[in-house]
Specification:
2 copies of one chain form a homodimer. Chain A has 190 residues and is mainly α. The first copy, chain A, folds into 2 domains: 2-56, Arc Repressor Mutant, subunit A (Orthogonal Bundle); 60-189, Tetracycline Repressor, domain 2. Chain A is 74% helix and 0% strand. Chain A has helices spanning 11-26, 33-40, 44-50, 56-59, 61-74, 82-94, 101-112, 115-138, 143-166, 172-189. In chain A, helix 9 (143-166) packs across helix 10. The longest helix of chain A has 24 residues, at 115-138. The first copy, chain A, is elongated. The A-B interface holds A 81-84, 87, 119, 122-123, 126, 144-145, 147-149, 151-152, 155-156, 158-159, 163, 179-180, 182-190 and B 81-84, 87, 119, 122-123, 126, 144-145, 147-149, 151-152, 155-156, 158-159, 163, 179-180, 182-190.
């Protein structure tokens, strides 16, 4: 069976592309795993080798992103301010998304159309904020500052990501930096 | 039937108290509406006059809080900075909770113990942030600043509320003000 992999190059990518096409055509709720697999020219069994369910097609990247951001925060130079550590991590991770803008835009659209998916997205972002707050506490940042920096960072990421998917002329790290500048202005002026 | 109300003073309060006792004793999942009504000395029918389900006992206040905060933001003096408008609204609303600290602490504990309730709380807070962002846009604040001020304000509220339920010596408006000062420090230092 292991040799099958030779005949299924980039199965994950094909399944993802097929799923996003079907979500766009028929909506998330009306799309089945069987249809996704058929569109990708693969079996359902192959689908379930990569994803636990169709929702996972939209969220499988969240765990890797969270690990990457937490590692970056942990590895920031000693004395780095908490929001700086979070923002630097976001900017570094932001480059990763550059090849994935079309997917990201389509994903935003699918999620916006489903209450269940919007809730799942909120839960993932809250988990990300909690993980970043813990990474900051592990650096010795006190509780309140750690939580606020993590929440502010995730808010910046969420807002920037939305702006970036709408504006093909800009790169995500730049949008993030502008958004942080805006947050500083909002906080300073209050 | 209307005259029954004479024999059920503060039915909502009695149902709420009974529900919180039962959630603490047996857990949220194991508690039934029938048990809540019986503990309160009321009928299930009376319960459903006040709450759509047992979860609503924990969340019925959210709509009123959101309306109050949105109205306060809308009524802020012209030229008030966006985060100031949100924080002033939170501080004003914070006084309301002073009589409800025991309920709030118990509520936090019940919510922390259930994934379903934590998700419901996230959804309510996201709805609050969206409503506050819209109230700021209605005041002419540009999109990004409105979203960031609303998200930062809700983060401050969430963190402050947690601190306040744990520390009986402090009042919520003061905790909120301290938390905003901390947020300014976190943003300025980055």
């Amino acid at each position: 069976m292991a040799s099958m992999a030779r005949w299924e190059p980039d199965s994950r990518g094909r399944l993802e592309t097929a799923a996003m096409q079907l979500f766009a055509e028929h909506g998330f709720d009306a799309t089945t795993v069987a249809e996704i697999a058929a569109r990708a020219g693969l079996t359902e069994r192959t689908f379930f080798r990569y994803f636990t369910d169709k929702r996972e097609v939209l969220f499988w990247g969240a765990a890797g992103l969270q690990d990457l951001l937490v590692t970056q925060v942990a590895d920031a130079p000693p004395g780095t301010r908490p929001l700086t550590a979070v923002v630097d991590a976001l900017v570094a991770a932001g480059g990763m998304f550059e090849q994935r803008r079309d997917f990201a835009r389509e994903r935003q659209r699918v999620i916006a159309g489903s209450a269940e998916l919007r809730e799942r997205e909120l839960i993932k972002l809250a988990a990300l904020a909690a993980a970043l707050a813990q990474a900051l506490r592990d650096r010795g940042i006190p509780d309140t500052a750690a939580e606020l920096a993590a929440e502010a960072g995730v808010a910046v990421f969420r807002v920037s990501f939305g702006r970036w998917t709408e504006d093909p002329t800009r790169e995500l790290p730049d949008v993030i930096r502008d958004c942080v500048t805006e947050l500083k202005g909002v906080a300073a002026a209050s």
